[in-house]
Design goal:
By secondary structure, this protein is an alpha+beta fold. It is about 25% helix and about 30% strand.
Length: about 525
């Protein structure tokens, strides 16, 4: 009889069995998978001994390779409804056969970071999803339910990343009976489907009578890739310069996402300090750099203001940063590398409902792309997961965001965070107006966009810089200058002619005398 088999001698979770288990754990003597499942059935999932044992085994597995970033002890249900333990192993690179051999004694599932099943993408590209839009009443019901339960769900399920209203449900994905049906529901995107963390309960089948649809997926902020438009060299962070505003205190400023210019430490400080951080508290990481074609950083301004808020009720969350432009001041609303689009008016879409019209964004990575807003109102909740921090920590949560599905392969990608998203007005002007800012993207092909109005309000302005007015003022100034110069020239000529006439008269007078 093995050491661990002694725990089952009286077929009950007795005090003696618990004492044996505690002693074996302290001596670093861990059971094999079969025995671990028996202990799970004996003591129960919620028993502290089982949680401790699974965490310790997870640590042993993680130490088998530097490529393993995190191990998530979990449980799953077999066809006979018998729960068993499985270890979800998150990796930053493929494990070798030798490395796999060291962990084969435990039931596990390898999950490369950022890689998920194709279920989420399959759903949003399905004809039924595209054509069967939610009615306004259905959307309002789903949005109300999400706003009510989002915080609780996020607190109880640390690997939940996206909460989104959906007009369809995906059924039995990965089997021969897989199908997508029209049924309004709440889509919950998690790290690994069918594997529930050992210390968490399963999701309810429904919330407020609204069914759920669990899919694999995650939300990732764009950035952290060299070659992007702007960034912060000391923080090694990059992204896209969005628009320009005339700030009442700092003057002409540029706008982008906070994670483009702040590192993880500053993001945490931002959350702890009332969600607002102002210059000079960014020192010495205040320089904002422009990255040219040769990627040589060129300082164009300094970080002066950052705001982070999750959003509550009907309010949209945001994580945005403002930097004061000190060099290369813009003189028009042109876009880098694009000659057929301008944003001179500085106008934004103030209505919360987005019409079913194409939207366009210009980012420093994917440049000009077109897509459409899936839901007419901000209704999606997202949360990032950063594996390089302590295991399982989540640093950004945003409620009531917009979700955009691309017309092509991608609407945005890494380096596009901070890009502005536009739609054309339906009036006679047919001009572009801003509806939001690209925050990041999902693994299933959609982009997350923060509504623009609350962002502008956070910085005490009502619109972006109006280059039409600025250029008109400049033109008027030029006209005024030209008129002034003309008048001065005429006056000078008149003075000369008057002097010539007077000289002639004096000459004539002298001749008479």
């Amino acid at each position: 009889m093995s050491n661990w088999e002694q725990c089952f001698s009286d077929d009950s979770a007795s005090a003696s069995a618990r004492k044996i288990a505690d002693r074996l754990i302290k001596s670093r003597d861990f059971p094999k998978q079969h025995t671990l499942n028996k202990l799970y059935q004996l003591f129960g999932r919620k028993d502290k001994l089982i949680t401790t044992l699974c965490i310790e085994i997870g640590t042993v597995i993680k130490n088998k390779s530097a490529k393993i970033v995190q191990v998530i002890p979990s449980y799953y249900q077999e066809s006979d409804h018998c729960e068993k333990i499985i270890f979800v192993i998150c990796t930053k690179a493929s494990l070798s056969q030798t490395e796999l051999g060291t962990i084969k004694q435990y039931t596990h599932k390898i999950r490369p970071i950022g890689k998920y099943s194709l279920e989420g993408k399959t759903v949003v590209q399905n004809k039924l999803f595209i054509e069967q839009n939610l009615s306004l009443k259905e959307l309002e019901n789903l949005k109300k339910c999400i706003n009510k339960h989002a915080d609780t769900l996020l607190s109880k399920h640390r690997h939940l990343s996206v909460i989104a209203p959906s007009p369809v449900r995906s059924r039995q994905y990965g089997t021969s009976k897989a199908c997508i049906i029209r049924e309004p529901c709440i889509a919950l995107f998690i790290h690994t489907k069918n594997c529930i963390p050992i210390d968490e309960e399963p999701f309810n089948d429904n919330y407020e009578g609204i069914p759920i649809d669990v899919r694999e997926g995650g939300f990732m902020t764009h950035g952290l890739e060299m070659g992007c438009r702007i960034g912060s060299t000391p923080n090694n962070t990059v992204g896209t310069l969005g628009g320009f505003i005339e700030h009442p205190t700092y003057g002409l400023c540029g706008l982008t996402c906070a994670h483009v210019l702040l590192n993880d430490t500053f993001i945490h400080e931002l959350k702890e300090n009332g969600s607002i951080k102002k210059w000079p508290t960014f020192h010495p990481y205040q320089d904002v750099t422009l990255l040219g074609d040769d990627d040589e950083p060129y300082v164009i301004g300094r970080l002066v203001h950052a705001v982070y808020t999750q959003g509550v009720s009907d309010e949209s969350g945001m994580e945005v940063a403002l930097f004061q432009i000190q060099r290369q001041h813009p003189n028009s609303g042109i876009f880098h590398g694009n000659v057929d689009m301008r944003f001179n008016s500085g106008k934004s879409h103030e209505v919360s409902v987005i019409d079913d019209v194409p939207v366009v964004k210009l980012g420093s990575t994917t440049h000009k792309t077109i897509g459409r807003v899936i839901m007419k109102e901000p209704a999606i909740t997202v949360r990032t997961k950063e594996f390089h921090l302590k295991a399982g920590s989540h640093i950004i949560t945003l409620h009531n965001q917009l979700e955009v599905i691309p017309d092509g392969s991608k609407f945005s990608d890494c380096g596009d965070s901070g890009s502005l998203v536009f739609m054309k007005r339906s009036d006679e002007d047919n001009e572009y107006i801003c509806v939001g800012m690209v925050e990041g993207g999902t693994n299933y092909g959609t982009s997350i966009v923060t509504p623009i109005t609350p962002i502008l309000q956070a910085f005490g302005v009502g619109s972006f810089k109006n280059f039409e007015t600025a250029n008109l003022s400049k033109d008027l100034k030029n006209v005024e200058t030209r008129i002034t110069n003309t008048i001065e020239s005429l006056e000078s000529q008149m003075d000369k002619r008057f002097s010539a006439v007077m000289d002639k008269l004096n000459e004539m007078r002298n001749n008479i005398t």
